[in-house]
Design a protein that fits this description.
One of its GO terms (molecular function) is glycine C-acetyltransferase activity. The chain is an alpha/beta fold. It has 2 domains: about 15-45 and about 290-385, Aspartate Aminotransferase, domain 1, CATH 3.90.1150.10; about 55-290, Aspartate Aminotransferase, domain 2 (3-Layer(aba) Sandwich). Helices cover about 40% and strands about 15% of the residues. The protein is built from 14 helices and 13 strands. The chain has helices spanning about 5-15, 55-70, 85-95, 110-120, 135-140, 155-165, 190-195, 220-225, 250-260, 265, 275-290, 290-310, 330-340, 370-385, and strands at about 35, 40-45, 100-105, 125-130, 145-150, 170-175, 200-205, 230-235, 245-250, 320-325, 345, 345-350, 360-365. The strands form 3 sheets. It has a 7-stranded mixed beta sheet, sandwiched between helices. Strands 1-2-11 form a 3-stranded mixed beta sheet. The chain has a 3-stranded antiparallel beta sheet with strand order 10-13-12, with helices on one face. Helix 4 packs parallel to helix 5 and helix 6 packs parallel to helix 7 (about 190-195). The longest helix is centred in the C-terminal third of the chain and has 20 residues, at about 290-310. The chain binds 4'-deoxy-4'-aminopyridoxal-5'-phosphate. The site of 4'-deoxy-4'-aminopyridoxal-5'-phosphate has 14 residues, from helix 4.
Length: about 400
């Protein structure tokens, strides 16, 4: 038997600190109400913002694609793994985002890894918001570029760093469009202004903005009217879009470069035909109507304002991601457990995902929630909050 004692010790420590998280296994499809251990629970932790995972057009597209193309693509994109359906998806994504080109990866995570590790070299500097997603951090770690971190959304610090970065060959400012743990929006207009002043590239990860922010869910660049001024827009196909995959929307020259450089693109089998077809159908749904997105934002404002009125701290939330800040990791997980007893699944998020004293239960509101659902959650929140002494 191998000696895994050091790993066991770490897990035991996580248990003592209330940070141990077994995988939750669901018995139903993704949706507003889901079944766990035979119990129906109100789902408030899914990224299925628009309920597209169960949309009839998407399901039909997937089934048709399986019948036409089979279940797998057979190889990486550069050998036999680019079917016409993959090509069409990239063309549609580019049109949707208003860019020259788009390149699809197997996930948002590998998109960030692939793009950042390809474009950054030892003579470059990457300047990253401290709360950027793990996939950005890992992508940066894969490069030999100089790394500078600025305090969350601190534009004075960003300017100071840019000012002292003139000697580098390329300067790349990287930010999430919507921050996944806090639900706040990056000050993209200010970032673009500074980048233009100091001749830097702007890279935005719109994982939580794709299908959520901007006209028809086109993302944060569209939301702020910054078309043509953001050089690299990363998106995911796994959250509001309802399937799985990631993409970068950019200029053709960058796409061509990534096709030759990005290792997750070059060395990992392409999306299944069903996934590509699902994503194409999702873009059609987004293009046809803003109705689901309008509902999503109305639900988010209703829920956030009521949570705040109860006296909870929702941090900087300004999107459908609504964290309720608790602080202590053990207390955070207790809060999440109490909500579970009430029939609500809202995930506790603790160190190391967030700082040790910034534990929170993160609620994600979707277009599928009814007002009755949200009121049900609010009542439970009030009871659990009082029980834990979080409310007066
Ligand atoms: N970026 C951000 C900001 C995210 O929240 C996520 C998802 N957790 C990703 C990238 C990765 O996307 P995907 O799940 O498609 O790999």
């Amino acid at each position: 038997m191998a000696n895994w004692n050091s790993l066991r010790d770490e897990l035991e420590q996580a248990k003592r600190e209330g940070r141990y998280r077994p995988i939750t296994v669901w018995e139903s499809r993704s949706g507003t109400w889901m079944t766990l251990n035979g119990r129906r629970l109100l789902q408030m932790s899914s990224n299925n913002y628009l309920g597209l995972t169960d949309h009839p057009d998407l399901k039909e597209a997937a089934i048709r694609a399986i019948e036409q193309y089979g279940v797998g693509s057979g190889s990486v994109r550069t050998i036999t793994g680019t079917l016409d359906i993959h090509d069409r998806l990239e063309q549609e994504l580019a049109r949707f985002k208003g860019t020259e080109a788009a390149l699809v990866f197997q996930s948002g995570f590998t998109t960030n890894q692939g793009v950042l590790s390809s474009i950054l070299g030892p003579d470059d500097v990457v300047i990253s918001d401290e709360l950027n997603h793990a996939s950005i951090i890992d992508g940066i770690r894969l490069t030999k570029a100089h790394r500078k971190i600025f305090a969350h959304k601190d534009m004075d610090q960003l300017e100071a760093v840019l000012k002292e970065s003139a000697g580098f060959k390329k300067r790349v400012v990287v930010t999430d469009g919507v921050f996944s743990m806090d639900g706040d929006i990056a000050p993209l207009p200010h970032i673009v202004e500074l980048a233009e002043k100091y001749d830097a590239f702007v890279y935005v990860d719109d994982a939580h903005a794709s299908g959520v922010l901007g006209k028809n869910g086109k993302g944060s660049t569209d939301h702020f009217g910054l078309h043509g001024r953001v050089h690299i827009q990363v998106g995911t196909l796994s959250k509001a879009v309802g399937a799985v995959g990631g993409y970068v929307a950019c200029e053709q020259v960058l796409k061509d470069y990534l096709i030759h450089k990005a290792r997750p693109f070059l060395f990992s089998t392409s999306q299944t035909p069903a996934v590509a077809a699902t994503c194409l159908a999702a873009i059609e749904v987004l293009k046809q109507s803003d109705e689901l997105i309008t509902k999503l934002w109305a639900n988010a404002s209703y829920f956030r304002s009521k949570v705040q009125a109860l006296g909870f701290d929702t941090g900087g939330s300004e999107t459908p991601i609504v964290p309720v800040i608790v602080g202590d990791p053990a207390k955070t997980m207790r809060f999440s457990d109490l909500l579970l007893e009430e029939g609500i699944f809202a995930q506790g998020i603790v160190y190391p995902t967030v700082a040790m004293d910034k534990g929170r239960v993160r609620f994600i509101v979707t277009a599928g929630h009814t007002q009755e659902d949200l009121d049900f959650a609010l009542n439970a929140l009030e009871r659990a909050g009082k029980q834990l002494g979080l409310l007066g």
